[in-house]
Amino acid sequence: MTWTEDGFYLDRMVISLTPEQEARLVQAAQADGISPESLVADIVLEALDFEDEEEEAVLVERRRQFD
Q: Tens digit of pLDDT for each residue in 34-67?
């Protein structure tokens, strides 16, 4: 994952949000009891196509630590 001023790259995909979109997304997640960190982790886990089950397990465990 590579962070840029315009968003971040996940493999060959770019996720880019305006500050307003980001704020709405975070507010909606927090209203559902989801922390911003967990929200990002969920997006990353959904966006990545894991071929390595061990790598996926490590990332899933890290995501649980945010809860």
A: 887 788 777 777 766 666 677 777 777 776 776 5
Query: What is d(CA 64, CA 66) in angstroms, rounded to the nearest whole number?
Result: 5
| Order of all β-strands in the sheet with 7-10 | 2-4, 7-10, 13-15
Cα–Cα dist 41/37, whole Å:
6
Residue spans of the domains in the chain: they are 2-66
Q: What is the DSSP string of 6-35?
A: TEEEETTEEE---HHHHHHHHHHHHHTT--
How does pLDDT run across 1-17, given as a tens digit for each residue? 555 566 555 555 556 77
Give, in order, the Cα–Cα distances in Å from 25 to each of 28, 32, 40.
5, 11, 10
pTM for the predicted model, two decimal places:
0.46
Side chain identity at residue 64, one-letter code: R
